[in-house]
């Protein structure tokens, strides 16, 4: 009803080790239920400084979202 068609959801981060956001699955399922186009982000913490750490964050993000459909 508001005209909003898309949403971006935090799936995890590396600001406190590597983790899956505790509300990701609930938020994803609710957004899907209401027909939103869904994007995700993985928060790289302040210690994110190397290319290798960036690759690790990308892999962690993929592991979290790979089964979402």
Assembly state here?
single chain
Distance between the termini: 24 Å
Gyration radius, in Å: 13 Å
Low-pLDDT ranges: none
**H and E string:** EEHEH
* Main sheet specs: 3 strands, mixed
Structural class: alpha+beta
Whole-number mean pLDDT: 90
Overall geometry comes to elongated
Strand order of the largest sheet: 2-1-3
Tell me the helix content: 25-40%
Q: Compute the number of strand runs.
A: 3
The helix count comes to: 2
Strand content: 15-25%
What key phrases describe this protein's structure?
69 residues, alpha+beta, 25% strand, three-stranded mixed beta sheet, 36% helix, elongated
How are the SSEs placed, and which strands pair?
Blueprint: E1 6-13, E2 19-20, H1 24-33, E3 37-43, H2 51-65
Parallel strand pairs: 1-3
Antiparallel strand pairs: 1-2
Short description:
It contains 2 helices and 3 strands.
Explain what the structure shows.
This protein is of the alpha+beta class and 69 residues long. The protein is 36% helix and 25% strand. The protein has two helices and three strands, in the order E-E-H-E-H. It has a three-stranded mixed beta sheet with strand order 2-1-3. It is elongated.
């Amino acid at each position: 009803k508001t005209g909003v068609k898309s949403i971006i959801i935090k799936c995890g981060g590396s600001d406190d080790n590597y983790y899956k956001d505790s509300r990701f699955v609930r938020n994803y399922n609710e957004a899907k239920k209401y027909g939103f186009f869904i994007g995700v982000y993985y928060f790289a913490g302040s210690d994110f400084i190397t290319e290798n750490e960036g690759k690790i964050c990308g892999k962690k993000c993929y592991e979290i979202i790979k089964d979402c459909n």
